[in-house]
Amino acid sequence: MTNSNEITALKKYVRATNFLATSQIYLKQNVLFKRPLQHTDIKPRLLGHWGTCPGINFVYANVNRLIVKHKREFIYLVGPGHGFPAVQANLFVEGSLSHFYPETIPYTETGIEDICKKFSAAYGYPSHANPEAPGQILEGGELGYSLSVAWGSVLDNPNLIAACLIGDGEAETGPLAASWYANRLVSPDNNGAVLPIVHINGYKISGPTRMGRMSHEELDLEFRGLGYHPIIVDDEMETDIFEQMTAAMDLSYDMINDIQRRARSGEDVVKPRWPVILMRTAKGWTGTTEYDGKKLAGNCESHQVIVSNCAKDKGHLEALDKWLASYKFDELVQTTESGELIFDKDIMSLMPPKELCCGRQRLSYGGEVVRALANPDLNKLGYGSETARGQRGFSMLKMGEWMRDAFKLNRDQRNLRIFSPDETYSNQLQAVFEETDRAWQWPIESWDQDMSRDGRVIELLSENLLFGMLHGYTVTGRHGMFPTYEAFSQVVSSMADQYCKYVHASQGIHFRKPIPACNVVLSSLLERQDHNGYSHQNPSFLGAMLEKHPNIISAYLPADANSTLVYTERAYADRDKLNIIVAGKKSLPQWLSLDEARKQAKDGIMVWDFASDENPDVVLAGCGDYATQECMASLVLIREILPRVRIRFVSVSELHSSGLGSLKFQSKPWMMDEVFTEDKGVVFNYHGYPNTIKKLVFDYKGNRRFRIKGYEEEGSTTTPFDMGVRNGTSRYHLVIDMAYKLFQQGVIDESQHVTITTDMLQRLVDHKNYIKANGVDPEEIENWVWTR
Q1: pLDDT score, position 220
Q2: What integer pLDDT is reported at residue 663 of this predicted model?
């Protein structure tokens, strides 16, 4: 039971942090409110969101109380948008800001002046949680990701509790709504726990929230239906809100401990009912309640900056003066002769040991705790010299074998997981189930396959939930993979963008070291979505990500299984990256030995000597495994027709926003001429949208020589080869394009050009007639074999 001293301490703590949050929004001087406010004390531009700050401070204080009481590791995630003044206020009071920024934010009045002057100022501090702030693992500008990231952070961290504050506006988003289902996936045996706290302050920018208008009974029913144990805290109840919250936090902690204790003693805990606190407080609580007849506190009017004309309007200034005075901040802090601040002893009683402060939590600095993976032996996994060039194999099956062996080698470290939106089998990664299972905490039937309480494959049909969990897992120092259908990766495009922003903002922050890469695997590719149809044909994610920082985004498009293995190994060795590996799951020709694949991976681009002639008349390039197969088939065709024509084949296996191949390659643009020649026509067959490649070669002086082929947004239910036909990427189209380039350059005459083009067009007509009559591609296409 909470004693009166704790309640007193909590109330003082929240008063202090509410004052500091308010000061950051409004004040550029007189930040300790030592005299009545003047217009000149007010910032010229007022930004920030006051309404959510009191709730953030209230929860932070209660989390600190549990840390002090139990000496347990906590991490605090703030989901509500733009509440950073409150986060920063707590980081200052606990000393984390002064620890990491001793020169600019000392534990003095000067430090408070810094955070006030720079909050939401040019080159200052953002309005939302950010990597520059200690203890943060989520770039908080976009709503909906907090709970999934929290779940990811506690995986394989059995002593960690992630307290996750969720705004009731944020709770209306799709990613957040799906995140409640993670309770089906996370075992209480070897993982930590998430304590969700939904802040129901009732309003968004200009209207009410869904939960804000729900009764206690409705809230209770909803969260019981989701599998949680709801605990309601409401400032309109007769019992003091501080007493309610401490009781709720204590009950939640005891429930978490009980669930984990039972699981760790060998009990099969089915459907663990984790606690969730539903905290109802007024929006803008403790602020100005009304002004000029308009209700502010407990209304959407308090969402952002209230009494916002303090720099000029006397009435607004007086309202702010009265508001700040209500916190009696001078009673809560003293200044020593040296200028250092000493907070009230009751407030200090809520300060955790330094190493357990939320801003100093070691697990929020993944680069400090990361351990490199022990890598499988590629020589044992890859297709060896006994595999003839062009013989068929399976890229995704080999990746699955790599992951299987990686799980085995890193079993004791428990630092590797797959986050798969229900596609582990479909994407041909099933070899992993020889070593681990899919995690599942609800009932497991006797006929269910590859499911257990502690499986390392997290599988649920929500891209949003699983990508968020991967985010939380990697930023806290572990390694993960997100394999998904290519067409539906676009669902998490914005989440991936926010992840990249987090990584980019972290770079250069002296207390953050590089974290493991976020590895996205795109399979079930558009070229083999003939049976699923047009809705499953979409390579947009690639193009979207290739707009981002070249030092952070790498897109790997290996041509075969050995190349896939090489790039998989590289992806897990990378730091501060988002890697995209694009690999087909169907049978495809194998082109490179492991040594050749390693050689190509150094530059991300290579002339395939075995398929090329010296002094070429035309250049053919392929990027993507199915695209490469069609390129190689077109080489066979055109050499049969024009045996004296010399052709160079260039394989591109790596893309960045700065161009083709590795960054080292792009720093020497003259090498483009070496690879693609100085003056010969180039036909480029690409897996995705042609405009992606057009952008990447735009600055190259020879770009007009390029004829770029790719997905033209044409498709339906058809045959695999017809997918390429419809988009102009088939072998017949490539022969037509190479013939045109040869004709332009005078290598062949008009008669030859017309004859070749007519021949290929007729083959396309014959193919269409054949598949309409037979329903499948002809044998010579379905089982095409490479010959040189």
Answers
A1: 98
A2: 47
How high is the pLDDT of residue 1? 55
Task: State the Cα–Cα distance between residues 110 and 32, nearest whole angstrom.
Answer: 10
Domain range enclosing 719: 609-782
- Cα distance between the two ends of the chain: 82
Angstrom CA distances, 403 to 205, 375, 398, 453, 689, stand at 46, 9, 9, 20, 30
Between CA 364 and CA 36 the distance in angstroms is 40
pLDDT tens, position by position, 119-133 = 999 999 998 899 999
Whether 134 and 99 have beta carbons less than 8 Å apart is answered as yes
Q: What is the pLDDT, as a whole number, of residue 669?
A: 67
CA torsion sign for 525, 530, 536, 538 is positive
Please give the model's pTM, rounded to 2 decimal places. Answer: 0.96
pLDDT value of position 740: 98
Q: What is the pLDDT of residue 667?
A: 58
Tell me the CA distances in angstroms from 665 to 130, 602, 662, 670, 686, one per residue in order.
33, 9, 5, 9, 19
Report whether 154 contacts 468 (CB < 8 A): no
The DSSP bridge partners found for residue 49 are none
pLDDT at 86: 96
453 and 543 belong to one structural domain: yes
Q: 617 and 711 in one domain?
A: yes
779: left (phi over 0), alpha (psi -120 to 50) or beta: alpha
Beta-sheet pairing, 618-623 with 588-589 = unpaired
Strand ranges across the sheet with 193-200:
73-78, 160-167, 193-200, 275-280, 229-234
In a domain, 9, yes or no: yes
Residue 682 Ramachandran class (φ > 0 left, ψ -120 to 50 alpha, else beta) = beta
DSSP string covering 103-117: TTS-SBHHHHHHHHH
Residue type, 761: L
Q: What residues form DSSP beta bridges with 708?
A: 684
Q: Are residues 681 and 729 in the same domain?
A: yes
CA distance 510 to 506: 9
Sort 222 into a burial class: Cβ within 10 Å, 0-12 / 13-18 / 19+. middle
Q: Is 44 left (phi over 0), alpha (psi -120 to 50) or beta?
A: alpha
Are the CB atoms for 582 and 525 separated by under 8 Å? yes
Distance separating alpha carbons of residues 570 and 550, to the nearest angstrom: 16
Alpha carbon of 57 to those of 15, 334, 613, 785: distances in Å?
A: 9, 21, 70, 67
Residue 194, sorted as left (phi over 0), alpha (psi -120 to 50) or beta, turns out to be beta
Domains: count for the chain: 3
- How far apart are the C-alpha atoms of 466 and 482, rounded to whole Å? 8
349 with 400, same domain: the answer is no
Task: Residue 418: name the closest of 373, 374, 461, 479 by CA.
Answer: 479
Q: Do 609 and 571 contact (CB within 8 A), yes or no?
A: no
User: pLDDT means per 10 residues in the chain (788 residues)?
Assistant: 88 98 96 96 93 96 98 96 94 97 96 96 91 92 93 98 96 96 97 98 92 97 98 94 98 98 97 98 93 90 91 96 97 92 97 96 95 97 88 96 98 97 90 97 96 96 97 98 94 95 94 97 88 86 92 96 98 97 95 97 95 97 97 97 97 93 62 91 97 91 94 90 95 98 97 98 97 95 89
| Domain CATH code at residue 727 | 3.40.50.920
Residue-wise pLDDT for 82-109, tens only, equals 899 999 999 999 999 999 999 999 999 9
Question: What's the Cα-to-Cα distance from 559 to each of 377, 537, 544, 564, 654, rounded to whole Å?
Answer: 20, 20, 22, 8, 10
Residues 583 and 616 in one domain: no
Phi, psi of 240 (to 5 degrees): -55, 135
Q: Are residues 629 and 698 in the same domain?
A: yes
